[in-house]
Specification:
There is one protein chain. The protein is globular and about 40 Å long. The chain has a two-stranded antiparallel ribbon with strand order 1-2. It is mainly α and 118 residues long. The chain is 64% helix and 9% strand. The chain has six helices and two strands; from the N terminus they run E-E-H-H-H-H-H-H.
């Protein structure tokens, strides 16, 4: 599930971890951000982002970039802390609670297909 050129360093480690491809790739997160639109703050709260993190995104990015920036920040944090499977599950659960069962289903099916085809 890993592969593009962006690397992250897990907490307490100097060994880089490749950025995810598939459902957690930049391209897929961008598609999700378009679907959530201006309601990104509600999804951010479902993904357990703090008010300070939300404010930082608002300060540092243009309004039409907020949702994508939030998902990238969330992914960056997740890749450092938990397995890809758990990250995908957390995103799908947050999207379902957020009221976007269609996106939740898409995330789970895309992840399953990526696993099956890998």
């Amino acid at each position: 599930m890993f592969g593009d050129t962006t690397s992250y360093y897990p907490l307490l480690s100097n060994v880089p971890v490749d950025a995810p491809i598939g459902i957690l790739s930049d391209q897929e997160l961008f598609k999700i951000s378009i679907q959530i639109g201006s309601n990104w703050q509600s999804l951010a709260r479902e993904l357990r982002m703090t008010p300070a993190e939300i404010r930082r995104i608002e300060r540092m990015h243009l309004p039409d970039e907020h949702g994508f920036a939030m998902l990238l920040d969330w992914r960056y944090k997740c890749v450092k802390l938990i397995r890809v499977h758990d990250s995908v599950t957390a995103l799908a659960n947050a999207l379902e609670t957020f009221g976007r069962q269609d996106l939740s289903f898409h995330v789970l099916m895309k992840y399953q297909n990526d696993q099956f085809c890998a």
